[in-house]
Design a protein that fits this description.
seven-stranded parallel β-sheet; alpha/beta; Rossmann fold; 356 residues; elongated; single chain
């Protein structure tokens, strides 16, 4: 059987879909992706060895009137194109991670009565998933809060696919010197970089016993690395971390954005977190993700409007004085982890295909 993987634009949409596609292939089936040439899927999918079919579609939210109008004009053509792709591959079922690139494929699948399995990793679903929630055969979510958007008999709490290496990270007892990993993703986050830089002199002057590791992205690396050396504090500033599971294993505290993938990795690794949601994320979904982990006791939520070197220092200094709280946060974070999400998604796709 052939399964069609819909949804793209960002790595957060594409990487979990690739994990599910690999599960399907290992079970003896085929997976074909549908996406745009401008999204992350254009690079990630061919690199992973999967076939991808192209459609032309853009977003509707926070894109301006001109781009939104262009998206609406293209939508009927993209639906027809998606229907032809589904028919040509005799699609047994569609897997969707949501996002604007998924909309034409999901609408075509609904018209052709092809079952859809959706994975929604954020606490608040995106526009496409919200609008089409009633048509999905199965909704796989990461947070109990998300279940309210879907028919109650079609929801399962599965989490998001995360590499097994994160689940294998052992518990870490806080020592006299805490290792703090600050990461804004592979490209870095300007707000986190700024706050980190502002707190370095405070750490040196007040002798806070921490070791800092900052993944700052390539754009600011040279400047930040030079400044870090001048401050003469323990740690490192790197453009990109190849071995992220290893970085998490060494960390006592992770300071991060609150995208679904980042939060899922923090939970799988079982690490205390300080989450700084990106305030311009669609539907403010990063704030909602951070709130969910914070409610479980696994993280502290630090809004970007409050973020400064002094504020970051205060939170780190407070946690450094409370090893018991750090241990409790790490264990609470790990309780939110759900291994095997990709295998569960593949199983549901196969079940829906058979039912059809």
């Amino acid at each position: 059987m052939t399964f069609v993987m819909a949804g793209g634009g960002t790595g957060g949409h594409v990487v979990p879909s690739i994990a599910v596609a690999r599960e399907l292939v290992s079970a003896g089936h085929q997976a074909v992706f549908v996406g745009t040439r401008s999204g992350a899927e254009a690079v990630l999918v061919p690199r992973a060895g999967f076939r991808i079919e192209w459609i032309e579609i853009g977003g509707l939210q926070r894109v301006g009137l001109k781009k939104a109008a262009a998206t609406l004009w293209r939508l009927p053509f993209s639906i027809v194109r998606s229907a032809r792709i589904l028919s040509r591959h005799s699609a047994a079922a569609v897997f969707s991670m949501g996002g604007y690139a998924a909309a034409p494929v999901m609408l075509a699948a609904i018209a052709l009565r092809i079952p859809i399995v959706v994975m929604e990793p954020n606490a608040a679903p995106g526009l496409v998933t919200r609008r089409l929630a009633g048509f999905v055969r199965k909704a796989l979510v990461s947070w109990p809060e998300t279940a309210k958007w879907f028919p109650s008999d079609r929801v399962e709490l599965t989490g998001l696919p995360v590499r097994n290496e994160f689940f294998q990270i052992p518990e870490k007892e806080p020592g006299d010197v805490l290792t703090v990993l600050i990461t804004g993703g592979s490209r870095g986050a300007a707000a986190l970089n700024r706050a980190a830089r502002e707190c370095w002199p405070l750490i040196r002057e007040r002798r806070l016993p921490v070791r800092l590791v900052l993944q700052c992205g390539p754009a600011q690396h040279e400047e930040l690395a030079a400044e870090f050396r001048r401050q003469e504090i323990d740690g490192d500033v790197v453009a990109f971390i190849e071995d992220m599971p290893g970085a998490y294993a060494a960390a006592d505290i992770v300071v991060s954005r609150a995208g679904a993938g980042a939060v899922a990795e923090i939970a799988a690794a079982g690490r205390a977190a300080i989450l700084v949601p990106f305030p311009y994320a669609t539907d403010d979904h990063q704030r909602r993700n951070a709130e969910e982990l914070a409610k479980l006791g696994g993280a502290r939520l630090l809004p970007e409007r409050e973020l400064s070197g002094e504020r970051l220092y205060q939170v780190l200094a407070d946690l450094a004085r409370k090893p018991g709280e750090l241990r409790a946060m790490a264990r609470s974070a790990r309780r939110a982890a759900r291994p095997g999400a990709a295998a569960v998604a593949a199983r549901h796709l196969l079940e829906q295909a058979v039912k059809r």
